[in-house]
């Protein structure tokens, strides 16, 4: 894709040349926005575990080379034909929801989040691991002045996913809400749950996360290595909601008995092995299991505004774009504290 045909300076991009291959840093032409699109000068882009879908080719139909990245923050640098509302110089982000078709049955009901042909930046088109990207206007999120690009980026996938899942979970202020996993999603989930007024039980493996979990807003810390976490939740009255963030179906299965009456296991940690549950576990107590994926750009704006109001922030490690491979490896290691963000 590298080219020297144009006189303008090319830009740098971190691309995946083919499924399973290592990242390469390449020079590309700066892309031009088509009708209904804008070009964004990317300032920061979070590295999300879902970028593995592009890196390893886990979804059908991805065209390579592909630039991953769906936690993008930057500035509109050029607008395509017919773009009226969005202006050059405006600070914007792009999250997981990269556009919808506006015609499928879900879109016709206004349920854009569940569009049958939803576009995902970094999957359906090149994402934010590059200095400039183009995006359709229906993917754009306004970034409040008080949030920096680095702060905003991870809120556009990890942030919105935890915020939106919790606010649609049915839990009310004062309810016991457990957050399973203290990682990229979980450390945000604990903060949002605390600010929503829930009694927060953070569930982690090992004693070492207890101090941090409480600092983030957990009332109780449950060490699932040392104790039976489901029993611990029942001793507290049973959880109204368990936000399952760590990608371990086994750990999720073991928590279902920690739900109270009408309790819900809200699944956002994506893994491909099955969650195990018996019908009586769900029947007695009318418990349920639900999944949740991110949200629309309007939901992202709610997330950013709420973060601005309450001080919820991701804990972040930054890497320069040139070190995208290193940043990705750090994210995959599970040792990052807690979100990795590329800076351009
Ligand atoms: Zn649709
Ligand atoms: Zn993501």
Please specify the SSE layout and strand pairing.
Blueprint: E1 11-15, E2 24-28, E3 37-47, H1 52-55, E4 72-79, E5 91-94, H2 105-108, E6 132-136, E7 140-142, H3 149-167, E8 176-180, H4 186-195, E9 199-204, H5 210-216, E10 220-223, H6 229-235, E11 239-244, H7 249-255, E12 259-267, H8 279-283, E13 288-291, H9 297-310, E14 316-320, H10 324-333, E15 339-343
Parallel strand pairs: 8-9, 8-11, 9-10, 11-12, 12-13, 14-15
Antiparallel strand pairs: 1-2, 3-4, 3-6, 3-15, 4-5, 5-7
Helix pairs in contact: 3-4, 3-9
The chain binds zinc ion (2 copies).
Task: Describe the overall structure.
The chain is of the alpha/beta class and 344 residues long. 25% of the residues lie in helices and 25% in strands. The chain has helices at 52-55, 105-108, 149-167, 186-195, 210-216, 229-235, 249-255, 279-283, 297-310, 324-333, and strands at 11-15, 24-28, 37-47, 72-79, 91-94, 132-136, 140-142, 176-180, 199-204, 220-223, 239-244, 259-267, 288-291, 316-320, 339-343. The strands form three sheets. Strands 3, 4, 5, 6, 7, 14 and 15 form a seven-stranded mixed beta sheet that branches. It has a six-stranded parallel beta sheet with strand order 10-9-8-11-12-13, sandwiched between helices. β1 (11-15) and β2 form a beta hairpin. The longest helix has 19 residues, at 149-167. It is globular and about 65 Å long. The model is unreliable at 1-7 (pLDDT under 50). It binds zinc ion (2 copies).
């Amino acid at each position: 894709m590298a080219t020297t045909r144009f006189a303008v300076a090319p830009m740098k991009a971190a691309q995946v040349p083919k499924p399973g291959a290592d990242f390469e840093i390449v020079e590309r032409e700066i892309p031009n926005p088509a009708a209904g699109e804008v070009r964004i000068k990317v300032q920061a882009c979070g590295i999300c575990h879902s970028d593995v879908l592009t890196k390893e080719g886990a979804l059908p139909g991805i065209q390579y080379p592909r630039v991953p990245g769906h936690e993008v923050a930057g500035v509109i640098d050029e607008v395509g034909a017919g773009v009226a509302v969005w202006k050059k110089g405006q600070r914007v982000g792009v999250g997981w929801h990269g556009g919808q078709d506006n015609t499928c049955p879900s879109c016709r009901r206004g349920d854009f989040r569940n569009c049958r042909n939803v576009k995902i930046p970094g999957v359906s088109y090149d994402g934010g691991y590059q200095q400039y990207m183009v995006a359709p206007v229906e993917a754009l999120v306004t970034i409040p002045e008080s949030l920096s690009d680095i702060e905003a980026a991870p809120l556009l996938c990890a942030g919105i996913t935890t915020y939106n899942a919790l606010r649609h979970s049915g839990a009310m202020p004062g309810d016991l809400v457990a957050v399973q996993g203290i990682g990229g999603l979980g450390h945000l989930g604990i903060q949002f749950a605390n600010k929503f007024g829930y009694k927060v039980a953070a569930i982690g493996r090992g004693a070492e996360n207890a101090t941090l979990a409480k600092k983030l807003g957990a009332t109780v810390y449950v060490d699932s290595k040392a104790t039976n976490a489901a029993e611990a939740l029942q001793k507290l009255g049973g959880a109204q909601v368990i936000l399952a963030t760590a990608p371990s179906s086994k750990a999720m299965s073991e928590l279902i008995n920690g739900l109270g009456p009408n309790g819900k296991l809200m699944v956002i940690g994506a893994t491909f092995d099955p969650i195990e549950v018996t019908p009586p576990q769900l029947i007695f107590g009318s418990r349920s299991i639900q999944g949740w994926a991110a949200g629309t750009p309007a939901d992202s704006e709610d997330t950013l505004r709420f973060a601005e109001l309450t001080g919820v922030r991701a804990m972040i490690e930054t890497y320069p774009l040139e070190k995208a491979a290193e940043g990705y490896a750090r994210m995959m290691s599970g040792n990052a504290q807690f979100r990795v963000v590329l800076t351009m």
